[in-house]
Design brief:
Elements lengths: L2 E5 L2 E4 L4 E8 L7 E7 L6 E6 L5 E3 L7 E6 L4 E6 L8 E8 L8 E2 L3 E6 L1
Length: 118
């Protein structure tokens, strides 16, 4: 079973950058699809970026061109580089994993707060 722990959140001014990291434990990390979700106050959690075991990526329209998801299977990490941050990017960002036999994300980290000030 994979376990996840996020790091790298914080407070940044609009236009700035942050890099989130998700460290995974478990020998089969490379088999899992990984995603970054965020939840803003009063809003539903949304998928921001995802990467498959084959390194295919997809992004929410709101972050395309600004965020980049990547994974390093040798280090068991998945990263989210966030550039040109906007106040509406504020929220709790969570890393999630999905086994290839499962249709939904079922392993979650505890989340990390990202706050973008205007």
């Amino acid at each position: 079973q994979v376990q996840l722990e996020e790091s790298g959140g914080g407070l940044v001014q609009a236009g700035g950058s942050l890099r989130l990291s998700c460290a995974a434990s478990g020998r089969t990390f490379s088999n899992y699809a990984m995603g970054w979700f965020r939840q803003a106050p009063g809003k539903q959690r949304e998928l921001v970026a995802a990467i498959t075991s084959g390194d295919s990526t997809n992004y929410a329209d709101s972050v395309k061109g600004r965020f980049t998801i990547s994974r390093d299977n040798a280090k068991n990490t998945v990263n989210l580089q966030m550039n040109s941050l906007k106040p509406e990017d504020t929220g709790v960002y969570s890393c999630a994993a999905k086994h290839p036999w499962v249709t939904t994300y079922h392993i979650w980290g505890q989340g990390t707060q990202v706050t973008v000030s205007s």
